[in-house]
Known about the structure:
Blueprint: H1 11-26, H2 29-39, E1 49-55, H3 61-66, E2 70-73, E3 79-82, E4 90-94, E5 101-105, H4 109-115, E6 122-124, E7 131-137, E8 142-148, H5 161-175, H6 183-201, H7 203-219, H8 223-234, E9 242-248, H9 251-263, E10 267-273, E11 280-287, E12 292-299, H10 322-330, E13 341-345, H11 348-357, E14 367-369, E15 372-376, E16 381-382, H12 386-395, H13 400-408, E17 411-412, E18 415-421, H14 430-439, H15 442-448
Helix pairs in contact: 5-6, 5-7, 6-7, 6-9, 12-13
Amino acid sequence: MAQMDAWARCPEAAHWFEARLNEFAAQNSFLTELRERFLTKGVALGTLVDHWILPEGSIPLDELTDIGLQPMTRPEGDIVWKHSGARLPGVRFKSNRTAPTLALLVEDVDIFTAANHLELTGIHGDVDSEYRCGHLPLEYGELMPVSRRGYAGFKPGEMTEGEIEGLARTRGKFRYLNRAAGTFETITELKTLFHEAADTIGASRAVEEFFFAEREYYLSRNAAARFQYAQQQEIGIGWANHDHHTYRSSRETFRALMSLFQTMGFETREKFYAGEEAGWGAQVVEHTECRIILFCDVDMAPEELNVEFVHTDLEPRDTLGTIGLWCAMHGDSIDLAGLHHLECEFDFAREEAEMKANGYGVMKPFTDLPMLKQAFTTAELWRVDPLRAANLVERGAITPELSEQFVTAGATGSHLEILQRWEGFKGFNKTGVSAIIKETDARLQAAIA
């Protein structure tokens, strides 16, 4: 299956949006100041543009079709022009506008407003609803912070008392999930919780709440991520710049994990297989309504190149690759371990410098291409349970010396990933990912140390 060419580079469309943002910032000193403030936290404001609202008739529609944008009608009847093959904002038109509106995606409109000391002229949508937007008049046009919670439309949300109560119950159940019950048991429990939540607050909103809880658990286990999240809350965006979440799974439970994500409404995208000697594979899945992408890793054998992960059980293997060892030491991502890494979009150079300046190491980039750059922060070390370590020694997966080191000093755990995209590129780099998976093998890391 094609990898890097699964998603095209879209320079014309990307440049069109970049030029629009630059022109708008040049006309609004506040926006110029906000862009620089964001950059001090490593965040490029342009990556958070949700959509533009332009005056009706202000540009010819051919200009949009020429760069690959097409009109899409949301269920409420709103029309947004989007590029189906790129990670780029949308464009809407309104007859009552005389100047552009920049809709900026944040995790919570109220937090963004307070963090940036803004006085909005109005906020539409109930607190915690699926879509909320605020209005800040600028010198020219308007800034509109928006928050989305499992919703891709533009209608301000309303919350009934029953929905508010159901949301609180859902959050509690996801937040306090028993992750120590065993991987199959955890997945089974999550399916039940998801169906209950979907009946109460809607399927897409249930997905959003589940991953909010997953990021919260991940934060509890990764200091670099906690630092960066605090930085991003200083500018009031939360994790609005997330690009993808990475799950590691043991072979025995991978099909069950894929089934869980399919139940949640994720659709399969490209499948990765790294070659006979690399020993790993991955399935990328996406939930378009929630704008959530998952990169799901698993050990693979050479003869499993054409296996469809979502339909086939993977048999246990005698040997453990990087991913199988990680799961055997820490648990699968869906249970005890949590996310292997959360990846967010940044201005790569600024974010790398900020992390290093604050004492968080950044590994050498494993992708450095004209349209994509990626690097991990230095791994958070997690101590391995002595019983798990002893079992791995008995299996011959690690030596007694490594066992002692992993139990006392810890083994490679999770990372935060720094990423920058150009030209609207939406894909991943198989070669680069293969290299970093090998490089972060706990056995190799221990030997280097």
